[in-house]
Amino acid sequence: MKITFCCTDTKAEPWLAGLRAALPAAQVELWQPGAPPADHAVVWAPPQQFFDEQSQLKGVFNIGAGVDALLKLRLPPRATVVRLDDAGMSVQMAEYVCHAVIRHFREFDGYEADVKAGKWSYRKPRSRADFAVGVMGLGVLGERVARALQVFEFPVNGWSRSAKTIDGVRGFSGAAQFNDFLRATRVLVNLLPLTPDTRDIMRRETLSKLQPGGYVINVARGAHLVDDDLIALIDSGHLAGATLDVFRTEPLPGDHPFWRHPKISITPHTSARTLRDESIAQIAGKIMALERAEPIAGIVDPVRGY
Ligand code: NDP
Ligand code: OXD
Questions:
Q1: pLDDT digits (tens, 9 = 90+) for 134-164
Q2: What is the model's pLDDT at position 186?
Q3: Top CATH class, 2-87+274-291
Q4: pLDDT (tens digit, 9 = 90+) per residue, 193-246?
Q5: Ligand 2 close to Cβ of residue 66 (< 6 A)
Q6: Ligand nearest to the CA of 141
Q7: Of 113, 149, 145, the residue nearest 131 (C-alpha)
């Protein structure tokens, strides 16, 4: 069995060594233009030329959870496309989102500024009942985040395409219940995949429906958010601020107002990193399962877009 590796912005050697160790019977090679055809590919942001040359692939394994960039390419017709299914990402996402929610709710950024200014001062405790958190997307990451938030006793709402029952989470589904979900929510967490249906989903019209003093946490994709609408709603006082990990252009251009806005915190697309060892173990297990024609989780539906 031949496996080809084509991951932009990724140090190839440790991945190749890990895949060779996990699949000792396989021939694992770094892709070069003109390389012989392989059975399976491990990819991140490959060029179109890669798929044009490797049109016989049976399996394409994306070393991330989001496949929006991959699905823009012309993919090999017979290939099963597989995304990372947690592989150590959900716990990181839960940490990131809980940290952002708690930091906002407890006003730790305000305390930090006070301390820097040499001020010993208290803020009035706020009621967590007034800080309903709404998680958009209740998949592998969103469900873990919703469960983690419950530990801190925040009211939690969840919105997904199909109806979901998660203990203690008020569930909303489909376009018909989206406005009710927004109106019931003060802190909005985005964990949707980027698809034609979800692009620009956080814009003036939708964000205006959040409860006054609303807060936005975007950890999915930059193109879910209309940047200028967010800034306008924060500056008008309808929204209290935002924590953003993902951006329309990454790295975020140096002159983008998000860098300096006092009510916006940013991080460089780091909320849930791909962990190499966990990912290699998962991908190797799935390659073997596909070879044995066994079912696997994490198969992407190109029509649905995730
Ligand atoms: P999943 O595919 O497991 O979950 C997606 C969820 O979104 C599902 O609940 C799905 O509904 C819901 N959904 C999809 N389309 C719609 C829609 N039109 N309306 C309502 N709900 C919808 O994805 P993951 O949880 O694994 O990952 C989510 C995203 O997080 C990734 O696509 C990626 O973009 C981003 N990500 C960001 C990272 C970072 O570091 N910032 C790291 C990893 C991922 P249903 O359950 O009904 O199918
Ligand atoms: C992912 C990501 O999709 O890192 O896994 O954003």
A1: 999 999 999 999 999 999 999 999 999 999 9
A2: 98
A3: alpha beta
A4: 999 999 999 999 999 999 999 999 999 999 999 999 999 999 999 999 999 999
A5: yes
A6: 1
A7: 149
270 alpha carbon to ligand 2 midpoint, in Å?
9
Q: Which residue spans of the chain are classified as CATH 3.40.50.720?
A: 2-87+274-291, 89-266
Q: What is the pLDDT of residue 196?
A: 97
List strands edge to edge, sheet with 40-44.
Answer: 27-30, 2-7, 40-44, 59-62, 80-82
* Best mutation site among 191, 247, 300, 303 for ligand 1 pocket (most ligand atoms within 8 Å of CB): 191
Catalytic one of 103, 221, 261, 273: 221
CATH superfamily of 89-266: NAD(P)-binding Rossmann-like Domain (3.40.50.720)
202 burial (CB, 10 Å; 0-12 / 13-18 / 19+) is buried
pLDDT digits (tens, 9 = 90+) for 267-286: 999 999 999 999 999 999 99
Phi-psi region of 241 (alpha: psi -120 to 50; beta: other; left: phi over 0): left
Any atom of ligand 1 within 6 Å of the Cβ of 65? yes
